[in-house]
Design a protein that fits this description.
single chain; mainly alpha; 2 domains; two-stranded antiparallel ribbon; 6 helices; elongated
Length: 129
């Protein structure tokens, strides 16, 4: 979450939020440049902001009042809900479903594996048919 968004959600001035972030990162022995970035303000001037991960955001706002903390936590929940899962979460409920999922899963072979499997198939196919 950006320091500008934190300032907006909490009603604090961005410069004050940045000052507290720098102090917090120094206390945690984290280089502020690892979360720092620049943006162009309305006058096209480069300005500094921080982009904090969830952990550092929650550490920062733990000193704020309850309403401010609630706004930040609600916003993090919105951000997390927007993320698209990267893996297929389907877990088969039966053996037959597991076999079907395995059969439908695409298989990729290297050229060497393809040659090996084709030569084995040519040798075994007459025995199977």
């Amino acid at each position: 979450m950006s320091s500008r968004e934190i300032a907006e959600l909490t009603g604090k001035q961005h410069q004050h939020v940045k000052r507290v972030i720098r102090s917090m990162l120094e206390s945690l022995e984290i280089d502020p440049s690892s979360f720092g970035r620049t943006y162009k303000d309305g006058s096209k001037r480069n300005q500094e902001e921080f982009n904090l991960p969830k952990r550092e955001t929650l550490i920062l706002v733990s000193g704020y009042n309850v309403q401010m903390r609630a706004k930040i936590i609600d916003r993090w929940q919105e951000l997390e809900a927007q993320q698209v899962p990267t893996a297929d979460p389907r877990i088969p409920k039966s053996f037959s479903e597991a076999l079907l999922l395995a059969a439908l899963k695409p298989v990729c072979f290297t050229p060497d594996q393809t040659t090996l499997y084709l030569s084995a198939w040519r040798r075994l196919a007459p025995c199977v048919i």
